[in-house]
Write a structure and sequence with these properties.
This is N-acetylmuramoyl-L-alanine amidase. InterPro entries: Amidase/PGRP_sf, Amidase_domain, NAMLAA_amidase_2. It is an enzyme of class 3 (hydrolase). About 20% of the residues lie in helices and about 20% in strands. With about 190 residues, the protein is α/β, with parallel strands linked by helices. A hairpin with a 5-residue loop joins strand 3 and strand 4.
């Protein structure tokens, strides 16, 4: 069940995503969209990247800068949001520019946008709701904690950059960990 202030906004392919028992979810993964706004995030989420299943990459929930919360994928579906952890996790995407639009350029790796208080408050409300409805939920991680791969920089193939850096250095981990009741997973 989504939190009271969220809006159901299922992706067109939601029902094609693999089903799962919500009791198997023990991890929440925090992402940032690395896009300018929620509309761009929706456009990316709707893109079909896996023709065999007709699905793409997305989080389960998206939280805009003003705290507006949307559920794109139900918790009983496995969304493609983090390599190796999808079956056991829920993905929460925070709208934030991150490294946009030069994600892999070695000269553009700073992530300078802060997370507004309304967005962090909405995240904490969502995490509280999820803990109340998913008793198996125990862990929280950043995308950068779980996907530590490096790739060639787009501007210089001799330089390696992190494939994923979200939610990034401006994410308020101490505040979130103190309030959410989950343990940070760092494999």
């Amino acid at each position: 069940m989504p939190p009271l202030n969220s809006v159901l906004a299922p992706l067109p392919y939601e029902t094609r995503l693999d089903a799962r028992d919500p009791a198997s979810v023990d991890l929440v993964v925090i992402h940032c969209t690395e896009l300018p706004d929620l509309a761009a995030a929706r456009e990316y989420g709707e893109r079909v990247l896996y023709p065999a299943s007709g699905t793409g990459n997305s989080g389960h929930y998206y939280i805009d800068r003003d705290g507006a919360t949307l559920r794109y994928v139900a918790g009983d579906r496995i969304a493609h949001h983090v390599r190796g952890y999808n079956p056991r996790s829920l993905g929460i995407e925070l709208v934030n520019t991150g490294r946009y639009p030069h994600w892999l350029d070695s000269r553009h790796q700073a992530m300078d946008e802060a997370y507004p208080p309304a967005q962090v408050d909405a995240l904490l409300a969502l995490l509280a709701q999820l803990r109340a409805t998913l008793p198996s939920l125990r862990w929280i991680a950043g995308h950068e904690d779980l996907d530590t791969a490096t790739v060639e920089a787009s501007d210089d193939p001799s330089v390696r950059v992190r494939r994923k850096r979200d939610p990034g250095p401006r994410f308020p981990w101490p505040q979130v960990l103190a309030a959410c009741g989950l343990e940070r997973l760092r494999p």
